[in-house]
Amino acid sequence: MARRKRLAATSKKEKHEQPLKKAKQSTKPSSTKSNEKSISKNLRSLTNKKTIQKDKVKIGQNTLNMRCYPTKFLKIVQKLELQERHMKAMNRTPFGHFLKMPNLLCERTILEESCGVWEKGRKGFKLGNSIIPFKVSDCALILGLSSHGDIVDFEKHGECTEFQKRFFDKSLPTTNVIVRHLQRLMYEELGPLEDFTKMMVLLLFSTVLFPQTNFSLPIQLLSYVDEIERLQDYAWADAVHRFLIKHIPDASDRVRRKKRGESQTAGYINGCAILINVFVFEHSNIVKPKSIARDKVPRLFKWESIKHHRKNSAANLIEGMKDFQVIERLVPRDVENRFLSKKATQDQKKESNKDSLESIKAERDRLFEENVRLMKENDRLTGENSRLTTEIHMWMKSFHNAQSGMKWDEDEDEDDSNGYSMSSSKQDKFVEKDEDVGQIDKKNSTLDEQTHTVKDESKEKGKGLRDKKKSSKITSPFLLFSSPKKKGNKTIPMDDLNELERNLIANFLNLDMDGTIVFENEDTFCTRKQIFELLTRRCLEGDVINVCGHIFQEQSRTEDGELRTIYVSSLFHHWFLNGETKKAENHLSALREMISTTIGLVFIPLLTNFHWHLLVINMKKGCFDAYTSKKGKMYMKSAEAIVAHIKNNYKEIVDEGWQLNDCVTCPKQTNGTDCGVFVLKYMECLGQAKEFEFTHVDMDNFRGKLASLILQKSQTLISKAMGSES
Q: One GO MF term, please (predicted)?
């Protein structure tokens, strides 16, 4: 009995302890793999919970990614090995130029930083202190697509076309599906070329222009591609712009959350994201393309490789951008205007044709009437010109007669000094002698005595005329710039010139001073007449200043061939004053490409109220300097207008805070003809970093130096001219 009780108690104890043993066994570290996984999972979850409670999630290393892959498009095109017929068919669409697209690499860090400075309300990117709007015209210039035409509707839901049924009835238009169809159509020699072209356009859409999740594209675009003959009528730049700008705000929010530490990744952005990078590059000068690619069209193609210092992070480039590095507006070149011009619809074209016929007829009638008027005006001007020519000839004849009569000084070796102050009796005697040459030969001795007598009288009376300054002296309206002491077209003294310079000028003065071009350089030229005016103390024309300015610019090159100074043609100020802004910009816009780290000075000659003065952009000191050889407030106001224009339109070159300095201590002229010579002397001294150690006395010598400088550059032309005339 006792034994039964002990067995029952033992069985009860075992039953009670068995669950405890199983529980202990389940907590041992030598459990099964499934238990290990569950334990590690639980540990990770616990760890993650603690981490979240203590600290925020650390910033992840995954930058903003994109679904736009131009490289993928190019690799597929290379593998397909397109034939000439395929290329021609593609070129008939607006997208043919993408087949020649270089291998473009989009830096994701710059893409992320660019999206981080997106201003949603203004729909633009904040570069420096400016918000640059992201416009359709920018997309057109970058991609080479039209910004005008019919609108592409992404909400369009039409009937399924026959093209869609044949190729995408059972699958979405993804890149992989499109490639399979292209491979099949490629080798179907008799297959429709139109289908292949449509597939190529869809491939471009899914990889570059309209990519979205899984390398697909908006299904609505299939109906537009199916009407391949009408692709030219749509504003594709506007379509790319609208599709991309719809996804930028969301990507910008994710980038900002990542920077705040609220997310580990910035995710993806749909659309043509490489457009954002190129937009930032084009609107700034933080990076530069290779010089050989600067003029490529479209602008997307010139960013194959960029001059980007890797040590500078993308954040430093974008967020640290200065105002002078920002280009607010892209100026289209002539070859790019076709992307921005409006395309008329068929109805508009018909109406415009009718209007154009009427306008052509009206214009023809107007031109006929204008031609008749001009013919009458030409006849009137011809008669007026003939009258003025005769009058000028008479003036010149009387002037030369007066000049020959006034030449009394130092003429002892001449035997014919008997004109201006000779008594009437002596004049009658000489007239009689001239009429009878035989009698003159017989009475030589008598004539010699009379001649000496006349000489003495002439000298005394000529001297008296000069001392009393009688009103009988005739001045010429054609010698406006002659010195009172130097009558006629006397050239400058050449004593201070070297032998080579004197010989060049002496040989030049043997030529006819006409309009023959002596030297031609870039957008200007110089004639014999203009150099002669330089040598005879006349006012300088803009052509002479431009030629010398370009020569000074070339002389400023370093050993590496880099320019230290830049000269802007005087035509810039001429067109600026006449309101021809476009023509003026043709002479100033080249600064954007020419400006480099070696450029120290930019010379801009100004002509205000018939007076030449100089405006200098000092790139090293960061200021503007104004030089004038004659005092006057109008000259400073003229310089201020140019400075304001440059600050507004060339912010990538100059800073808004640069001041304009009036250099009042520069040497001044003492006559009315040396202003242009002073401008050139200012440029020479500044370009060579010399002090202004000259006065108006040195201008004659400098005129000779300038003339010989031009002639040395054109010795071949001078020698040919001399040979032809000899």
A: deSUMOylase activity
